[in-house]
Design brief:
Elements lengths: L15 E4 L10 H6 L6 E2 H4 L4 E6 L5 H14 L3 E6 H4 L7 E3 L2 H9 L4 E6 L1 H7 L3 H13 L6 E8 L5 H11 L7 E4 L6 H10 L4 E4 L8 E5 L4 H10 L5 H10 L9 H14 L5 H12 L5 H6 L4 H19 L11 H11 L2 H8 L2 H4 L7 H10 L12 H10 L6
Parallel strand pairs: 3-7, 3-10, 4-6, 6-7
Antiparallel strand pairs: 1-2, 1-10, 4-5, 8-9
Helix pairs in contact: 7-8, 10-11, 12-13, 13-20, 15-16, 15-20, 17-19
Length: about 400
């Protein structure tokens, strides 16, 4: 099985963003929702001109690498730009800098120039404790020490972890931006003499209004890859006959496997190995198998988990997801959700449950509302009530179709 050498190399695809409504919540199906919207797409050039932005995307969409690349790009242009990990800000601000450092931040505080701050990511900050995100924002606000007017701030989050109401209020309260005041001329046209005096003195009667009304953080979604972006990615990763690769994706209705870089990598590797686009079930199986192994070397070293245990655990989690969603209710009514969790606890030690919950499959899931609670439960031994995280629809469907009924 081939492995792309470009996994750790950034490929600039010219990504686009779409504004989301602040009046509703979104889930991992946001791509379908925005596809039928009327909002026009914007580019990074437009986004970097904004003052407060939240970028939402699904797992594997590339949001972290996008903002990491933009941080470096701005720094090459001689601008102040910093990339910080939100989960580290809540613990120790001085070591939270991935790009830039605390000493440079202090220099910026003492100066007068602008800076771009990229804070990644809300979902990782909430993984250990749901309150850590709020703590990180409050600490960051305190560290700005009143210099927020000179700061352009960008946050990233998985769609399912962002709370449109309370999170926006937190950002608006702790990281406000006072837009320049609007000056409105208010001359009295009937006072002809005063008008003549004004011509010579330059004085005017003005009304100054606060510019902070009706503003706040903008919420943008990272758009799925377009056909042209998929082609650019394929060429950059060395796909031979890229046009044929694209044609096969469209002919097999496989664009759902190419909408984000992480999934597209799997699709390219399948193409390189088989010189064809597989059936939907083949692609689901291949993607699931890939995600059973931890791709992050740091996570793999810190939390090792045997592949067979990962596979068995994934089957159980797929059963939980399938029964919760009702997909298997008609076919196997005897198996209850609680029984799946009993099997999981029997087969794995508490720390192995925790590792499984943090693995690539579960990091790709669609419902992470209480992942923090799940992670805590994993540390202390799972409680059968904490079954709120699930697999991705792709992985869940694949496992449900061919392995959920497997037994010891």
């Amino acid at each position: 099985m081939s492995e792309l050498a470009t996994r750790n190399v950034f490929i600039d695809l010219g990504r686009h963003f779409v504004a989301l409504s602040k009046d509703r919540e979104y889930d991992e199906d946001y791509e379908t929702q925005i596809a039928f919207g009327s909002a026009s797409a914007v580019t990074w050039h437009d986004v970097l001109e904004k003052r407060r932005v939240v970028v939402l995307a699904k797992a594997g969409a590339g949001k972290t690498e996008e903002i990491r690349n933009k941080t470096r790009e701005l720094r090459r242009q001689g601008k102040r730009a910093f990339f910080l990990r939100l989960e580290h800000i809540s613990k120790d601000f001085e070591i939270a800098f991935d790009i830039g450092d605390f000493a440079e931040f202090q220099e910026w505080l003492a100066g007068e120039d602008e800076a771009w701050f990229f804070l990644d990511s809300v979902d990782e900050a909430r993984l250990g404790d749901p309150k850590d995100f709020e703590l990180a924002i409050r600490k960051f606000s305190r560290r700005l020490d009143g210099r927020g007017q000179r700061a352009r701030i960008f946050l990233t989050s998985r769609v399912g972890e962002w709370r449109m109401g309370s999170d926006l209020r937190l950002i608006d309260e702790m990281l406000p931006y006072q837009h320049p005041s609007t000056t409105i001329l208010d001359k009295n046209p009937s006072d002809e003499a005063q008008g003549i005096d004004d011509l010579f003195t330059g004085s005017e009667t003005v009304e100054t209004r606060s510019g902070n009304q009706g503003f706040g953080p903008e919420v943008l979604a990272l758009s799925p890859l377009s056909t042209n972006q998929i082609r650019r990615f394929a060429v950059a990763t060395g796909v031979e006959e890229a046009d044929e690769f694209i044609s096969e994706i469209l002919r097999n209705d496989a664009k759902m496997f190419a909408s984000c870089p992480l999934d597209l990598i799997d699709l390219v590797e399948f193409w390189n190995d088989h010189k064809r686009i597989g059936s939907r079930l083949e692609l689901l199986r291949a993607s699931t198998t890939k995600k059973l192994s931890e791709r992050d070397p740091d996570r793999a070293a810190a939390w090792p988990l045997a592949k067979e245990k990962a596979r068995k655990g994934a089957e159980i989690l797929a059963g939980v997801d399938a029964h919760k969603s009702g997909r298997l209710a008609r076919h196997n009514k005897k198996i209850a959700v609680g029984e799946h969790w009993h099997r999981l606890r029997q087969r794995n030690k508490p720390h192995e449950c925790f590792v499984l919950a943090q693995g690539p499959l579960c990091r790709s899931q669609r419902n992470r509302d209480v992942i923090g609670k799940t992670a805590k439960a994993g540390r202390n031994g799972f409680d059968s009530g904490n079954y709120a995280f699930a697999l991705t629809q792709q992985a869940g469907n694949a496992l449900a179709q061919y392995s959920i009924t497997s037994t010891d």
